[in-house]
């Protein structure tokens, strides 16, 4: 009787352990491809390429030489024209971070966050003390806008598929509309189901 | 007299405005810049809300394998719905086989594989 109980409990434990979900932490730098879709490795590759090139190109040196100060950049929008849902913020944030870490480029806030800042400033006009209240009309204007696009080409037949992604980031002078830098990263994947 | 004063003030204001506008022009700046400026001042807020975001304009790519899986899922779903619909129609048809007040449900018991001859 004891043996039966022991075996049945062991069997139950084995079954339960087999059904349990198993989650392990992995290094974000590690390449894990599961479905063949856009993933964190692709985003990282794009971020690496863009951060390496944007600060090395001569637009930066030219701006400093001509204006005598560091350029100010605002991030515009990235258009995803690929076949998958891709959020560009994962790699654009890395580019922004490189601007701040290297202290070569100044960055100003845009979009919803800027709206929030203005709303906070508006709130200060009636609620903050006079000495700590921040004034309107003293925001830093941007010299350049960072915009981008994501495109893809899919070639699939039966169980084989080649997916090609092209990510472009562009830096444009806001006053003159002159494009001063274009960064690109091309990723091609062969997927066999 | 009043009218004369009004015309004079308007003229002076126009002259002053045009002078300041002329003074504000940067070297080589298009003198009609205000047309474009006024147009874009109207839409700046709505456009700038998209800053730092990703605009999704995705398309559906042809994928033979994915289409196959989708077709299979659709087939399974269709069969499931058909089965459910059949089951529902069997139990919820009050006027089927003569309605509530017939003796269909009180028919005599019959056994055997061919007992459903009255269907």
Question: What keywords describe this structure?
Answer:
heterodimer; A: 193 residues; alpha/beta; Rossmann fold; 5 helices; extended; B: 119 residues; mainly alpha; 3 helices; elongated
Summarize, please.
Chain A is an alpha/beta fold. Chain A has helices at 2-19, 40-54, 58-67, 89-102, 111-127; strands spanning 72-81, 106-108, 144-157, 160-173, 179-192. In chain A, a hairpin with a 2-residue loop joins strand 3 (144-157) and strand 4.
Structure description:
The complex is a heterodimer of chains A (193) and B (119). With 193 residues, chain A is α/β, with parallel strands linked by helices. Chain A is 38% helix and 28% strand. Chain A contains five helices and five strands; from the N terminus they run H-H-H-E-H-E-H-E-E-E. The longest helix of chain A is centred in the N-terminal third of the chain and has 18 residues. Chain A starts with a helix and ends with a strand. The mean pLDDT of chain A is 92. Chain B has three helices and one strand. The termini of chain B are far apart. The model of chain B has no long low-confidence stretch (mean pLDDT 76). Chain B has a domain of 36 residues. Chain B is elongated and about 95 Å long.
Residue windows where pLDDT falls under 50 for at least 5 positions of chain B:
none
Helix-strand sequence of chain A: HHHEHEHEEE
Q: At CATH's second level, what is the architecture of chain A?
A: 3-Layer(aba) Sandwich
The geometry of chain A reads as: extended
Count of folded domains of chain A: 1
- Strand tally of chain B is 1
Number of helices of chain B: 3
Mean of residue pLDDT values of chain B: 76
């Amino acid at each position: 009787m004891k043996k039966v109980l022991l075996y049945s409990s062991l069997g139950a434990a084995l079954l339960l352990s087999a059904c349990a979900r198993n989650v392990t932490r992995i290094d974000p730098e590690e390449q894990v491809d599961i479905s063949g879709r856009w993933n964190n490795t692709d985003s990282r590759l794009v971020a690496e390429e863009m951060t390496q090139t944007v600060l090395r190109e001569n637009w930066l040196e030219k701006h400093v030489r001509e204006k005598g100060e560091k350029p100010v950049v605002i991030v515009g929008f990235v258009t995803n024209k690929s076949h998958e849902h891709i959020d560009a913020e994962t790699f654009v944030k890395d580019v922004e971070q490189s601007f701040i870490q290297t202290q070569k480029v100044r960055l100003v806030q845009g979009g919803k966050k800027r709206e929030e800042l203005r709303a906070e400033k508006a709130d200060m006009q009636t609620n903050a003390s006079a000495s700590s209240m921040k004034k309107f009309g003293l925001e830093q204007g941007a010299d350049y806008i960072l915009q981008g696009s994501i495109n893809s080409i899919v070639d699939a037949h039966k169980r084989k598929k080649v997916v090609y992604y092209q990510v472009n980031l562009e830096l444009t002078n806001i006053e003159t509309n002159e494009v001063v830098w274009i960064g690109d990263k091309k990723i091609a994947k062969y997927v066999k189901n | 007299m009043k009218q004369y004063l009004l015309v004079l003030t308007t003229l002076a204001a126009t002259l002053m405005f045009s002078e300041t506008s002329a003074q504000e022009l940067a070297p080589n700046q298009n003198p009609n810049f205000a047309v474009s400026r006024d147009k874009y001042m109207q839409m700046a807020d709505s456009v700038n809300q998209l800053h730092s975001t990703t605009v999704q304009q995705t398309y559906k790519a042809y994928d033979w394998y994915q289409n196959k899986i989708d077709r299979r899922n659709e087939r399974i779903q269709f069969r499931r719905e058909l089965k459910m619909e059949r089951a529902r129609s069997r139990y919820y048809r009050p006027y089927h086989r003569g309605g509530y007040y017939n003796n269909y449900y009180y028919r005599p018991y019959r056994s055997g594989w061919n007992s459903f001859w009255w269907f």
